[in-house]
Amino acid sequence: MRRAVPRVGLSATLGDFTAAADFLRPGRGPDVVIVEGADDAGEIRLQLRGYVARRPDEGEDPLHETAIAQHLFETLRGSDNLVFANSRAAVEHYTDRLTRMSEGLRVPNEFLPHHGNLAKDIREHVEARLKDRSTPVTAVCTSTLEMGIDIGSVDSIVQIGPPHHVAALRQRLGRSGRRGDQPAVLRMYVAEPALDGQSSPIDALRVGVFQAAAVVDLLLARWYEPPDRDNPHLSTLLQQVLSVVAQRGGARPAELFEALCGHGPFARVDRATFAALLRAMGAADLLVQDRGGLLLAGGTGDRLINHYTFYAAFRTVEEYRLIAAGRTLGTLPIDHPIAPGMLLIFSGRRWEVIAVDGRQKVIDLRPSAGGRVPPFAGGGGTVADAVRRRMLELYRTGTPPRHLDAAARALFEEGSDAYRRFLLDERPIIGIGRDTLLFPWRGDKVMGTLALALTARGLSAGLEGPALSVRGADPAELRAHLGALAATDPPSAIDLAALAGDRIVDKYDEYLSDDLATLAHAARAVDVSAAWDAIREFAAATPAGPDLVLPAPATAAGATAVLGRTPFAVVDVETTGSPPSITTASSRSQSSDSTRPATSWTAGRRWSTPAAMPGRRTRTA
Predict the structure, then answer these.
(1) Which of 332, 362, 387, 616 is the most exposed place for a label (fewest CB within 10 A)?
(2) Where are the alpha helices (H) located in 17-87, listed in sequence order?
(3) pLDDT band at 317 (very low <50, low <70, confident <90, very high)
(4) Rounded to two decimals, what is the model's pTM?
(5) 44-220 has which CATH code?
(6) DSSP assignment letter at 314
(7) 3-state secondary structure of 350
């Protein structure tokens, strides 16, 4: 366990190689040889395209998504490209639209999906197509093709939605421009909501356009997010303890500590914390200790080790295997009820659910001509301090970058006008009725810490883009709370992390004790020092005038109901022998006649539920 293993690290997005050297050789970072390549002076071509997202008519696709798909179709056909979306849902949405466009024009389909839930043979087919220069292909993908898979060079990169990480965008852009003197090409598509009298200040600020512009500015300046060196990664350490125990048929605590912490990558975990981790693993039946002191896998630990999901260090949701005509298409994370008769989109095609086997986690499908995509899991990620600071600079200057198209430029100017109209340069605070928006212009880790600090004072606070939304406190009250916090000594990160509602984030956090879960969350999500700097900076600033207070949005009671759009409830008060039930208008037909198919809504999408049959339990999405 003490054998020295040669270690080689490669990165195109590290600004501080010292941290990487310390990680490769804990305590011996100066001994690591750092080889830096010549500066990449290659040409980069950029364009940020803006769109306005308006509410679609019943049964229609959002117009901005159709416009984006049309531009992708006209621009990318005939070349090799990667289209990165911020979620699997967007991957399937756009692949479906592009496939239908190809079918409508009777031309070969060049647009294929690629994400982690597709079967291996489907992913490998897309990767092989990208390597084959004889036929053009565009892969619509998540971060699965960001790095780590050899697909050669592509002609251009597309980012749908504002990027969250500078380093991730650099990794993606690095897929383009590798052939000779070919430039790297990046196209970004950002949609902002249409504005009306009820729009939030966040919408008016056009945050997506400014975030995308800020990330690109930092990319061109070669700034990348620094590694998180304070995170002890206890979930991954737990997995590695089990791995060593399984590999060696048992291990002693001292040997494990020296291999993984003393001379390994978990150098920030001290002996006391490691001992607490071993005790927590014993309490969870992951480990047992024989009379000689040897640690062995417990019953639960043995089941974890022998399950195929053990090899991944990240959390995965419960997935169902999708089968059509005896062929496995891939897996689908299920976070909503699904039943026969429902329609979904997967692998760029539309399918109807034939049967669902909950015990074996299998869904049988057949091709369908209609349907809507299910709500896949997936998202963008946290935003760094530097990105928000650069956004603030863009708002203050009001000068749009040159790579914005006319529509994005108009959105940028709208956001700049809103910044001035809300007087945010003078007072970074907006009252909305009895609620308040605070704009610290800091990263999500600092913002989350501020929210916990306000929670400790009995306030309800949460993140809303670049702002902190505080419920039930007007600007004057919030200023008083921030002044009180600035006058006190900062609490410990552990104390604030204990206030977080859900500290089970990483894959094996559920096996940690409460104290260890709090410790891990404090390192992962709390930055007390930076948060108190922001609090004191705000408290020390003298307001240039009275705070801006906007009227609260009109309640639903004062709004005009629109058939098919406005949600309402029907209360069944008939003497049926059952307690009163509340159903949506879309499911009322089902409650009055259980043999008729009903329509229900999930995440703004309509789903069809089959007629009830004897012996079959059906559930609406």
Answers:
(1) 616
(2) 17-24, 63-76
(3) low
(4) 0.78
(5) 3.40.50.300
(6) S
(7) strand
